[in-house]
Design goal:
Helix content: 40-55%
Order of helices and strands: EEHEEHHEEHEEHHEHEHHHH
CATH superfamily of the largest domain: 2-enoyl-CoA Hydratase, Chain A, domain 1
Strand content: 15-25%
Shape: globular
CATH architecture of the largest domain: Alpha-Beta Complex
Distance between the termini: 27 Å
Number of strands: 10
Largest sheet: 6 strands, mixed
Number of helices: 11
CATH class of the largest domain: Alpha Beta
Radius of gyration: 19 Å
Strand order of the largest sheet: 1-2-3-5-7-10
Structural class: alpha/beta
């Protein structure tokens, strides 16, 4: 499958989306912007894919929007509506990533700025290189964080720390980002790929339906009360009890062997 400004590979149940504009620090060109949407949709609809990884080439994860393209309005105007036109949303990535049933991991190899940070925050898990750095950046440019930061940061950091990060637009190093809760974990730069794939492989080995149902349960719970969340998860649980994967898990436990899940 061909994508412009990005690479896509699939191996052992893991789809890896790599932003590939190292000379532009993986700034989001219109082609890259649209390619990520299409790649996520493709991976979401591919039964062979269990986990999605997003990363970048070179020294940056994503340095934000391509400033020249933004000045020309390429990233903000509505694309022509044709049958095969890629889906562009007013709030990029965030809704699509949450609606995607499959786990999405950001492997943050370097700097993430503005919408590049929004892209990472939209992922379910963030693994950062110890060389990575982060800034929201919008306020310094006279804008409001409108692509996910204003939603995710208070939930990850708390309101006061989120506002500090947003208002100051300070650059945050990897160690501070981990301390704040901005990223899930930090690893040595040379171990980023192996650590990310190790985590992805652990998820792939688990029953797909349970993994995907758990993701949905967590995000549903963010916008509801405890009673509704419990009711939702109990209903999902009843459905999972009828799956072949649940039966295989129980059988393997009794037989003292590793289960073999088929996503059924």
């Amino acid at each position: 499958m061909e994508y412009q400004d990005m690479l896509y590979k699939k191996e052992e149940g893991i789809a890896v989306i790599t932003m590939n504009r190292p000379d532009k620090r993986n700034a989001l060109s219109p082609a890259l912007f649209e390619g990520i949407f299409r790649a996520i949709d493709d991976a979401a609809g591919d039964d062979e894919v269990k986990v999605i990884v997003i990363t970048g080439t070179g020294e940056a994860f994503c340095s934000g929007a391509d400033v020249k393209a933004m000045a020309e309005g390429a990233l903000t105007r509505e694309p022509p509506k044709t049958e095969n036109a890629p889906r562009i949303r007013r709030a990029p990535f965030a809704m699509q990533f949450q609606e995607c049933p499959k786990p999405i991991i950001a492997a943050m190899n370097g700097v993430a700025v503005g919408v590049g940070l929004d892209l990472a925050l939209s992922c379910d898990i963030r693994i950062a290189s110890d060389r990575a750095r982060f800034t929201v950046g919008y306020v310094r440019r006279g804008m409001v964080p409108a692509a996910g930061s204003a939603y995710f940061l208070p939930r990850l950091l708390g309101i006061d720390k989120a506002l500090k990060v947003i208002w100051t637009s300070e650059m945050i190093d990897a160690a501070e980002a981990e301390r704040l809760g901005l990223v899930t974990m930090v690893v040595p730069h040379e171990e980023l790929e192996s650590a990310t794939m190790e985590l992805a492989e652990k998820i792939v080995k688990n029953p797909t339906l349970a993994v995907q149902s758990s993701k949905r349960a967590v995000y549903e719970g963010l916008s509801t009360n405890l009673e509704t969340s419990l009711e939702f998860t109990m209903n999902v649980r009843q459905g999972l009890l009828r799956t072949e994967d649940f039966k295989e898990s129980a059988t393997a436990f009794v037989e003292k062997r590793e289960p073999t899940f088929r996503g059924e």
